[in-house]
Amino acid sequence: MSSRKTDTLILGGGITGLAVASCAGELPKGWGGDTLILEKENVAGGLCRSKIKDGFTYDYSGHLLHLRRPEIKKWIFELLDGNLREVARDARIYSEGRLTKYPYQMNLWGLPAPTIKECLAGLMDARLAARRPGPSGSFLEWSLDVFGAGITKHFMKPYNEKLFRLPSGDFNAEWCGGFVPRPSLEDVLRGALSDAPKPIGYNATFFYPQRGGIQSLVDALAAEAARSGEIRLGVAPEKIDLSSKTAVLSDGSEVKYRRLVSTIPLDAFARVCALRSIASRLRSTPVVCFNIGVKGNPPHAAHWMYFPEKKFNFYRVGFYSNINPASAPKGHYSMYVEVSFPSGKRRDIARALNASVEGLKSAGLLSSSGDIVSLDIRPMPNAYVVYDFERARAIEKIRAVLVGKDVHLAGRYGAWKYSYMEESLAEARGIAESIV
Ligand SMILES: Cc1cc2nc3c(=O)[nH]c(=O)nc-3n(C[C@H](O)[C@H](O)[C@H](O)COP(=O)(O)OP(=O)(O)OC[C@H]3O[C@@H](n4cnc5c(N)ncnc54)[C@H](O)[C@@H]3O)c2cc1C
User: Fold this and answer.
1) What does the pLDDT read at residue 31?
2) Is residue 60 part of a domain?
3) Ligand 1 in contact with 40 (CB < 6 A)?
4) Most buried of 136, 190, 317, 327, CB within 10 angstroms?
């Protein structure tokens, strides 16, 4: 059996693993900058890969850069060396046959009058009741306390149940923090009485590469990571002994490490560390993204649209070519259609695709199936971590086993949370700083 030593063994070559290797490579000499990334696929990048097909540039659905931390923004600007465009968000909600602006709760203008009345009355009741949502409550309770019965009924409940494929009483609201805007009563009233809302939320403007899709960011990181160590493709850990700090790999070789960073899904990591029973307590919702290239002009200028209603099988549709016109050939537009599936059940992709095409037609986003000139299907087996009532306890148990073993769990799936690309880069910096 061949054996190798490394300072930092990194599981997973997505944006988080690549960023960790890139930061470790900058550590002062003697601090252990040698890294080895193990990536099970034959190409690095994870969910931040892009594909150019039939002249269209597709991602794993919209992968937009929401940059709030100045130091990470600076790093990304350096990595992409000018290959970035800033875009002012145009996001919509399609419900009751109307297209309102995002976020729903702040832009009731345009909805049928009875819906507006129900939403406002529910919000007033909730504000008068002034119940403080507890951290251990369900998403449904949280939404009723924060937004009231009307907004919960018309958007929060159906949208999130469709996204997670679970009843909204079965998961909590811990993940909502920075992602679900909580406007003031005054803002809600203004958005109900006029069409001139003020931008709110974590993604009021965003950045996206001019060329090469979001993959250009992971390519730049991969080039930095390769300077500090090795990226081994097509290899996964099969067994990890946390005490002797040894990993046995799928190619039969062995690696001895000083520290371990895992960015692979936490359930997979727990399994290779012989923590099988805890692994089975972690749940996620799979998503399939249909990337569709269409002949003709885009039906709308929006960047993406949310679909809370059951009659559509997708929860979100976005337009790559509205985000960046260079994503589609002239005279064409391109969409990503996101469909979630119940966890652990067989997925009928062909049926879902047919239903999506019909849904796009009925929402006026596609004139005829005959206009589709390109199709690319991207599965995301773990897309959304489910914040059910087991999650925190299971993670705590895994972390307890890792104490004193020099292991870092990082990234959306490594740390098993709702997170985004900027956070991955910030975590990578944090890990490098913690080493020093
Ligand atoms: C639908 C959707 C839309 C999103 N949109 C945005 C957005 O607009 N903006 C944003 O900032 N973020 C967005 N995100 C989040 C973003 O995708 C993640 O934060 C980011 O990709 C996490 O990167 P990662 O490296 O931690 O994980 P991943 O990208 O999943 O990378 C993990 C890597 O580990 C590899 N791997 C898995 N198992 C093993 C194994 N056993 N052994 C070895 N390797 C393994 C995988 O092949 C993969 O390459 C979105 C996510 C989803 C699901």
Assistant:
1) 67
2) no
3) yes
4) 317
Q: How far apart are CA 304 and CA 298, in angstroms?
A: 12
CA angle in degrees (0–180, nearest 5) for 64-72-207: 25
Domain ranges, residue 183 = 101-198
Task: Flag residues of the chain having pLDDT under 70.
Answer: 28-32, 134-136, 197-203
Which stretches of 203-279 are DSSP H helices?
A: 215-228, 266-272, 276-279
Question: Are 289 and 232 within one domain?
Answer: no
Q: Which two tokens stand for residue 118?
A: 């129900």
Q: How far does residue 46's CA lie from ligand 1's centre (Å)?
A: 5
Q: Whose CA is nearest to atom 48 of ligand 1?
A: 46
Q: Name the pTM for this structure.
A: 0.96
Residues 381, 391: one domain? no
State residue 179's pLDDT score. 76
Q: Using CA atoms, how far apart are residues 36 and 313, in angstroms rounded to an integer?
A: 41
Classify residue 256: in a domain, yes or no: yes
In the structure encoding, which two tokens stand for residue 329, read together?
């050939």
Query: Do residue 119 and residue 249 come from a single domain?
Result: no
The per-residue pLDDT for 169 is 96
Residue pair 307/158 in contact (Cβ under 8 Å)? The answer is no
For residue 172, being part of any structural domain is answered with yes
Cβ contacts of 228 within 8 Å, gap of 6 or more = 21, 22, 24, 25, 26, 33, 34, 35
Where a domain ends, among 165, 198, 231?
A: 198
Q: Is the CB of 93 under 6 A from ligand 1?
A: no
- 134 C-alpha to center of ligand 1: Å? 30
Determine whether the shortest distance from the Cβ of 165 to ligand 1 is under 6 A. no
What's the distance, Cα to Cα, between the start and end of the chain in Å?
33
Exposure string (b/e) for 83-107, b if CB count within 10 Å is 16 or more? ebeebebbbbbbbeeeebbbbbbbb
Number of domains in the chain: 3
183, amino acid identity: P
The residue to mutate among 39, 47, 215, having the most atoms of ligand 1 within 8 angstroms of its beta carbon, is: 47
